[in-house]
């Protein structure tokens, strides 16, 4: 009697986002900006960056005086593991 052994790849069941669990947001604008990342506020001087957890569907806002203000963009799977310029998502 023949026995068939099936080996399933662990990579086939792990979502891509788990490999790229964050993305880098770079302030390439000409001014300082505060953003609300969904878990806290980051102050970005021009040319500086912050790492943001890549939770697809989470909204990113400006943060005037430390509170959510204007909507900037929603995190998509295309952001995960990448460097994203602030000017491209504003």
Characterise this structure.
This protein has one domain (16-84). It is 4% helix and 39% strand. The chain has one helix and seven strands. The strands form two sheets. Strands 3-2-5-6 form a four-stranded antiparallel beta sheet, with no helix packed on it. A three-stranded mixed beta sheet has the order 4-1-7. The chain is elongated and about 70 Å long. 14% of the residues are buried. The model is unreliable at 11-18 (pLDDT under 50).
Gross morphology is elongated
Helix content: under 10%
Largest sheet: 4 strands, antiparallel
Number of domains: 1
Tally of DSSP helical segments? 1
Please give the oligomerization state of what you see.
single chain
Class by alpha and beta content: mainly beta
* Beta-strand residue fraction: 35-45%
For the CA atoms, what is the radius of gyration?
A: 18 Å
| Low-confidence parts | 11-18
Average of per-residue pLDDT values: 85
Number-wise, the strands total 7
Kindly, what is the distance between the CA atoms of the first and last residues, rounded to a whole number of angstroms?
64 Å
Order of helices and strands: EEEEEEEH
Spatial ordering of strands, largest sheet: 3-2-5-6
Keywords: Signal
Signal peptide: 1-20
């Amino acid at each position: 009697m023949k026995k068939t052994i099936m080996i399933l790849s662990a990579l086939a069941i792990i979502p891509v986002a788990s490999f790229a669990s964050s993305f880098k947001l770079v302030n390439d604008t000409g001014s300082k900006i505060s953003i609300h990342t969904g878990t806290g506020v980051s102050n970005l001087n021009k040319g500086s960056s912050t790492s943001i957890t890549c939770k697809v569907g989470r909204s990113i806002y400006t943060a005037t005086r430390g509170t959510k203000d204007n909507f900037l963009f929603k995190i998509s799977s295309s952001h995960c593991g990448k460097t994203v310029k602030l000017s491209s998502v504003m």
